[in-house]
Amino acid sequence: MSNNEPMISFDRDHIWHPYTSAVNPLTVYPVAGTDGVRIILEDGTELIDGMASWWCAIHGYNNPVLSKALCDQAQKMPHVMFGGLTHEPAVTLARKLIDLSPAPLQHVFFADSGSVSVEVALKMAIQYFQGTGRTEKNRIMTIRNGYHGDTLGCMSVCDPVNGMHSLFSSVLPKHIFAEAPSCRYDEGCTDEDFADFKSKIESHAHELAAVILEPVVQGAGGMRFYSPEYLKRVREACDEHDVLLICDEIATGFCRAGAVFGSDLAGISPDIMCVGKAITGGYMTLAATLATEKVAQGISSDGGVFMHGPTFMANPLACAVANASLDLLVESNWEERIPQITTMLEDGFSPCANLPTVAEVRCLGTIGVVEMKQPVDLDAIQAEFVKRGVWVRPFGKLIYVMPPYVISNLELEALTSAICEVVSLQG
Ligand SMILES: *Cc1c(COP(=O)(O)O)cnc(C)c1O
């Protein structure tokens, strides 16, 4: 470790890490490389990756097919501006996204991160009602416990309690929050479960442009899985009240929850959909916002143009690696493999379920969650995981994994048993 000390201390003194103090930062572990589902630290420690680098690295790291796609594209054309120009990697990717997503989604806007794709979605909804002459419909409704990104527009629809609202309340627009769904994934959705959403959308419909939510899986806002029936009722209520539905599929997209998209679990189709994270298999930052013909027409109905255009829009490197990643996914046997992973997560975490410190264990698709009764000490618990050769990054009370889909059974067992062992030491 000692020869890395200059690097670590420079990092500590000068570099921000996510959600971290500049003065008293948490530990960071220097990484020398990655290989398959392993993260290799500078001191040679190999960690089985339980996080897929925050939902992204679905095919594992250093995947030869993705690396080749990236290198080939770098030889041809690393980047060109997208204003007035187009290129094959972008067109191919747009075709793939339109093919994979629910049929009504026909228009693609390439964004450079998930948060930007959410900003784009919110702007599309507001411009849609401007374009169609209903300018009073300019507010957004969402459900509590959501997470939609870190930029200002995104923060305004993140959970107002466990998000960052309190710090920024003076600058954030005030949107409308329904209670988080109380019906769980394997339950139906009763009138009572839907009552709060129903009454809020009814009373605010005249001023609402859109509802935004994460379909079925609420990720960074609490790792909760709710009933697909609830999402169906949201879709119906949006139709009834002429409110657009935005599904934020940035975490759920590309098979993470057991279907290609979270909205597929409910058999619904949003008006606007955000995708990101796993789209490039964890190689590059890229996201996209898809919209229906109706939304695209509405925005442009009085000659209007959609007002957004990032510098690195449709970056060819990112598009090329995304094309390779989506091909790998479609050609893989994910429909068989993902339920196997679910079963292994359920079995692997079952020893935790009855521990006095554990509130609940829940699994869906390739997502496994051990919810503790008390928040964990992040620095201390992370050190215990590293000692046992696994990479897991809890937050609050949540110890959770969403490994690369290519993880082997042995690696998955090692991951869950290390977690159970560390959880059993808590108390
Ligand atoms: C990660 C995430 C975002 C933000 O994406 P970034 O690429 O980090 O900007 C938005 N919504 C959901 C559901 C996410 O999981």
CATH class of the largest domain: Alpha Beta
Distinct bound molecules: pyridoxal-5'-phosphate
Count of domains: 2
- Provide the helix percentage: 25-40%
CATH homologous group name of the largest domain: Type I PLP-dependent aspartate aminotransferase-like (Major domain)
In angstroms, what is the radius of gyration?
22 Å
Give the strand order, joined by hyphens, for the main sheet: 4-12-11-10-7-5-6
Task: Say how many strands there are.
Answer: 16
Morphology call: globular
Proportion of β residues?
15-25%
Structural class: alpha/beta
As for the CATH topology of the largest domain, it is Aspartate Aminotransferase, domain 2
Number of helices: 15
**Poorly predicted spans:** none
- Tell me the CATH architecture of the largest domain: 3-Layer(aba) Sandwich
Gap between N and C termini, in Å?
30 Å
Largest sheet geometry: 7 strands, mixed
What does this structure look like?
The chain is of the alpha/beta class and 427 residues long. The protein has 2 domains: 5-63 and 333-424, Aspartate Aminotransferase, domain 1, CATH 3.90.1150; 77-331, Aspartate Aminotransferase, domain 2 (3-Layer(aba) Sandwich). The protein is built from 15 helices and 16 strands. The protein has helices at 5-14, 52-55, 64-76, 88-100, 114-131, 152-155, 165-168, 191-204, 228-241, 262-266, 293-299, 316-331, 334-353, 378-387, 409-425; strands at 31-35, 38-41, 46-49, 105-111, 139-143, 176-178, 208-213, 217-218, 224-225, 244-248, 272-275, 287-292, 358-364, 367-372, 390-391, 398-401. The strands form 4 sheets. It has a 7-stranded mixed beta sheet, sandwiched between helices. The chain has a 4-stranded mixed beta sheet with strand order 1-2-3-15. It has a 3-stranded antiparallel beta sheet with strand order 13-14-16, covered by helices on one side. β2 and β3 (46-49) form a beta hairpin. α5 crosses α11, α8 (191-204) packs parallel to α9 and α13 packs parallel to α15. It is globular. It starts with a helix and ends with a helix. The mean pLDDT is 97. The protein binds pyridoxal-5'-phosphate (PLP). Pyridoxal-5'-phosphate (PLP) is lined by residues 113-115, 118, 147-149, 214, 219-220, 248, 250-251, 276-277.
